[in-house]
Amino acid sequence: MEDVLIVSGLVGIQAVFALYLVFLKRDLALGVHPLFVVVSMNLANSLFLLPLAVALERKKWPRTLNPVLMIQFVSIALGGLLILGEKKTSPAIASAMPNLAPGFIFIIAVCLRLEKMEIRCKFTWTKILGTLLCLSGAIAMSFLQSSPELTSQVSSGDIAEKEWITGCGYLLASVVVLSCTSVLQAVTMQTFKAPFSLCVVTSLLGAIFTAIVQIIVEGKMEIGSSYHSPTGIIGIVILGGSVSSVCITYQTWCIKKKGPVLVYIFSPFQAVFSAIFSALIFRQLIGIGRFI
């Protein structure tokens, strides 16, 4: 029953993430600053999970924070490039690119001996073939899926193509960071066995780091020029952050139970759900590239 719960829950989480990416793309297109979204979501995550961490895991907290644990917290907190890539590409690409993560995670986990690999074992070859299939699908979808913005802005094709390439670069960088932090989560929870507390600390650090980056780059913290009211934007972001906090905590718990490779092999479902939601909600056409 635990295995059934884990598998069904991980599939459901991918559907939730895909739905959120579809709506987030619309908000970003209306002018909401992506770094503000990262800061707000991380703050919402930490505030939402703090009472649960205090109530359920207070006895598991270490009495002192050693330097290694602090470095692990900081490393897991680094991220946010996925939102920047989402703004410059599309929900389908933002959902397809993380399909590279299982391959990277599998390689890292094998190198760190968190994942067993025996050349003569049929399960090892199944994992390798599945990883290659996952990588091939992600790369193919990235190349075959054309950007709506790219096709509609033929007159400014060079600018649109540059934005598209930059966005894919952000997404690829975010996948590398995601892969490293996912494995690092598994390592950290071997000594810090408190998934709610881990999410609270890393989300809070992530909000602080992202706010510092926005202040350095932009000179100030700003929501961005949007047709939405500030209250509406904050409400949408906080709601999304609260939902994602539950999903991220569940994934963290699954990583503790089953390891990072199993958790992230479900990420291809997000691309499928994203394409379906984009077509149903915003009437976005499913081209031959995305269908393949």
TrEMBL record:
Cellular component terms (Gene Ontology): membrane
Membrane topology: Multi-pass membrane protein
Residues that span the membrane, as ranges: 5-23, 35-56, 68-85, 91-112, 124-144, 164-184, 196-217, 229-250, 262-282
InterPro entries: EamA_dom, EmrE-like, WAT1-related
Primary location: membrane
Entries under Pfam families matching the protein: EamA
Domain of life: Eukaryota
Record's subcellular location: Membrane
GO molecular function: transmembrane transporter activity
Annotated SUPFAM superfamilies: Multidrug resistance efflux transporter EmrE
Annotated signal sequence range: none
Keywords: Membrane, Transmembrane, Transmembrane helix
Keyword hit for Transmembrane helix: yes
Domain EamA, chain residue ranges per copy: 15-142
Database matches in PANTHER family: WAT1-RELATED PROTEIN
Family as reported in the entry's similarity comment: Belongs to the drug/metabolite transporter (DMT) superfamily. Plant drug/metabolite exporter (P-DME) (TC 2.A.7.4) family.
Protein name, as recorded: WAT1-related protein
